[in-house]
Predict the 3D structure of the following.
Amino acid sequence: MSKAGDLTKRVLIGRALRSDRLGETLLPKRIALPVFASDALSSVAYAPDEIFLTLSIAGLAAYSFSWKIGLVVVAVMLTVVASYRQNVHAYPSGGGDYEVAYENLGPRFGLTVAAALLVDYVLTVAVSISSGVQNAGSALGFVRGHEAAIAMGLVLLLMAINLRGVKESGAAFAIPTYGFMLAIVGMTLYGLGRYAFGDLPLVESASLDIKPEEGFEEGFAGLGAAFLLLRTFSSGCAALTGVEAISNGVPAFKKPKSKNAATTLLLMGTIAVTMLMGIITLGRLTHLRFAEDPATQLLRNGVPVGDDYTQQTVISQLAKAVYSGFPPAFYLTVAFTGVILVLAANTAFNGFPVLGSILARDGYLPRQLHTRGDRLAYSNGIVLLAVFAMLLILAFNAEVTRLIQLYIVGVFISFTLSQTGMVRHWTRLLRDETDPARRGRMIRARVINGFGLVMTGTVLVIVLITKFTRGAYIALLAMGALYVLMRGIRSHYDRVRVELAPDDEMVAQPSRNHAIVLVSKIHSPTLRALAYARATRPHDLTALTVSVDADDARALQEEWDRRGLPVPLTTIDSPYREITRPILDYVRSIRLQSPRDVVTVFIPEYVVGHWWEQLLHNQSALRLKGRLLFQPGVMVTSVPYQLQSSDRRKDDDDEGITAGDVRRPPGT
């Protein structure tokens, strides 16, 4: 690695950590909360928006159901939190929903959960960052119109921070996360206090009316109203996203891991539901209006407000009203909201790589995802997540309303299958348990998980019914494609393992080794390759060149004879000026004559220091190696020759020695 490249990497990522320092990266609860719960906590920044937005379809009459929808979402949230507290105690190894489903329901259900979670993690990054940029646009006008570009830049920034390690990213995100909690709770308490004293002003949109869409002009009743309430509930359940992240990240906690993870889950659930209901309550008290298409749905004196009207987010409207007369508090609230929505993606940056590592360990994803990087983080998974999230942001232009329709379905699939697996887990253990105290705890845990199964299964059905045609089918297709891909990867690894398994008998030793040195001209790389080939002491050694020009071939043979080189030079005519095919035919002819023999082909190659030099050299060698590698019984050996430009690629170690120095002739 060049000095400049090494310096850049160290500045961005930090110095590499030894493997035995993994314990130093474990997280205490105060850091684990912002690391793993930022997604669930930040969901309250856009879940109320989705509740009010969906209800606005039926006009103002439907807004009276907002707090009721909120309470149902709270009930589901607390149920899921209680259920996952059982999970982290039963499965503390970090597989989370995937491990629970895999162990208790079988590999197919485990892979289904894994596909759902991986897709949901990508959506978490896309939705959270897009929502954060959208919130920032409420206070910063220059953001509008450039949301996608800014969101992609923020993904890259988060990727770089997470490549430095889990503990470092958690410490960096702790202050904004706790700041957001204080901002929302503080706004709620201050707003309720002003309301108690009759001093709470209305939001700016309170003077507007909402035009009901077709089917609700006569009022909010009938099957249409019931379906809309179900759809509103499913949108509000966005507040539950991220709850599963803690169960996936139990190994990252300090000991006692399960206890700390369960405590963090309880803290997260309590804070999230408090903030959610606080925002919904303030929205009702300040007569907030929030519509999907404000230009046509919002009316002023019976006339649509038009495209000139800019609809701010729910939190932005509430903060401006609650902190009327004190703008700094408004800007602080909006700033913390925008930052936490961006940082919420950090939950996915911790969950996706860990789950990817476990899947890679089990053979369902490429093995590279199981490798830790310089900072003991799963670097390949972090980069892969960033790439997919940026593609999604670009495809949907960072529009939260469009992205949110793809959301939730994946997480509730994993919720439901996980709770099913936990019920079977406790049922299996109860068959053999005789201790009354332990049986009592298991029965209580099974009841909790069973209730969680009913709740999450019901929500999943509602989500599928209400969101399928609005974009959820895209997420389901992505999950299906990922499921098939993972099965295919596992099948490939299984086939390779069978092929590579050694037989009971020893591998037969080849009868002879025929060595071939490829020659294009007589220069130092060729002479080095000849010397190395002779040092291997093959049965026979041939220098081979392909003649595409008779004069050049004759001159090469004359120079060869003049130097008196101790290896015979064989020339193959190529009237069609091909290089690769004649060499392959020559190698095959040797193999046909002696099938038990091996053929070793030595290829001289230049080692260069600049990427553009690589384009100017070694192209014929690369093509030839690619073809020779598919020939049975043929070994390919590259003989490197370092050009002067490769000196800049030396490793910057204490001795100043690089690979190749011991082979380089003195003075070169």
The chain has two domains: 20-98+124-399, 513-649. Residues 423 and 446 are 5 Å apart (CA to CA).
